[in-house]
Automatic annotation (TrEMBL):
UniProt key word NADP: yes
Keyword Repeat recorded: no
Protein name: Quinone oxidoreductase
Entry-linked CDD domains: QOR2
Recorded superkingdom: Bacteria
GO cellular component: cytosol
Length: 321
């Protein structure tokens, strides 16, 4: 089968198309022929070595496709079922072994490109607004990268709860997308960001900041919080945040900082299916708009990563075998 193989850590150029043997499913696994594959920032962390993974490996964690083989111990799925997943390493390939424990039904009303990129970003947005900091109606929050895949979904989910959302973006085009998603106010990144946030909140600051950018926005995020506000640091698109003095949290107003990851918010089958169904159901009925900003052939994974890291994309992006 065709797959993307990483033999050394580095830039996008290490994403090499190759012919490899079909993977073999175990008793609890599904073998799935992929229809579309999600591309996420976490894939770049593994590629560069920020997150360790044994080499060589096939990157990717997320996708959707049709089951072509079922392990002997699997009872929930059958051949021909359409499934989606967000935690199956080796997804940049024409066929993927997906543990049945992480697979969910992909509804017929959700297009493959949407289903392939809805789970990781959609369930991330869901746990951020429902669990990491469950914002309440009338509160104001700040969402960085408001036109990104998670940002657009998170803004919609927050606005639907009656939360006022301030977002940050880098271009006029992205501002338009963020406003369309329900942002109350849209700001640019920069030195004046926290001052503008405080002006918009009458000097108080926001209840929470959802920050997937990391190093470049961390200080402004802390400075934008109200007393006892919460910084939810869920990514590091600009690089990891350097060590900092915890005393800063005291001086700034008894602040909270959490560094969550999706895996800890889908710890069992019940929680996984709850979040997945909430996302898919909302997409299927149209209350959650899932924007797929770009599709690339599987062999163009290198370009997909270049565009993602260069902030040239909006919404989610996918590879199509």
């Amino acid at each position: 089968m065709r797959a993307i193989v990483v033999s050394e850590n580095g830039g996008p150029e290490v994403l090499a198309p190759a012919e490899v043997a079909d993977p073999l499913p175990g008793p609890d696994d599904l073998l799935v022929a992929t229809e579309a594959i999600g591309v996420n920032f976490i894939d770049t962390y593994f590629r560069t070595g920020i997150y360790a993974r044994d080499l060589p490996y096939v990157p990717g964690e997320e996708g959707t496709g049709v089951v072509v083989e079922v392990g002997s111990a699997v009872t929930e799925f059958g051949v021909g079922d359409r499934v989606a997943w967000a935690a199956a390493p080796g997804s940049y390939a024409e066929k993927v072994v997906v543990p049945s424990a992480v697979a969910v039904d992909a509804p017929a009303g959700v297009a493959p490109e949407q289903a392939a990129s809805a789970l990781l970003q959609g369930m991330t947005a869901h746990y951020l607004i429902e669990s990491a900091y469950p914002a309440r109606p009338g509160e104001t929050v700040l969402v960085h990268a408001g036109a990104g895949g998670v940002g657009l979904l998170l803004t919609q989910m927050a606005a639907a709860k009656g939360v006022k959302v301030i977002t940050t973006v880098s271009t006029d085009e992205k501002e338009a997308l963020s406003r369309e998603a329900g942002a109350w106010r849209v700001l640019r990144y920069g030195a004046e960001l926290s001052r503008k946030v405080r002006e918009l909140t009458g000097g108080e600051g926001v209840a929470a900041v959802y920050d997937g950018v990391g190093k470049d926005t961390f200080d402004a995020s802390l400075e934008s919080l109200r007393i006892r506000g919460t910084l939810v640091l869920f990514g590091a698109a600009s690089g990891p945040v350097p060590p900092f003095d915890l005393q800063r949290l005291n001086a700034a107003g008894s602040l909270f900082v959490t560094r969550p990851t999706l895996a800890h918010y889908v710890r069992d089958r019940e929680e996984l299916t709850w979040r997945a169904r909430a996302v898919f159901d909302a997409i299927a009925v149209g209350t959650l708009k899932m924007r797929v900003g770009a599709s690339y052939p599987l062999d163009a994974a290198e370009q997909a990563h270049r565009d993602l890291e260069g902030r040239k994309t909006t919404g989610s992006i996918v590879l199509v075998p």
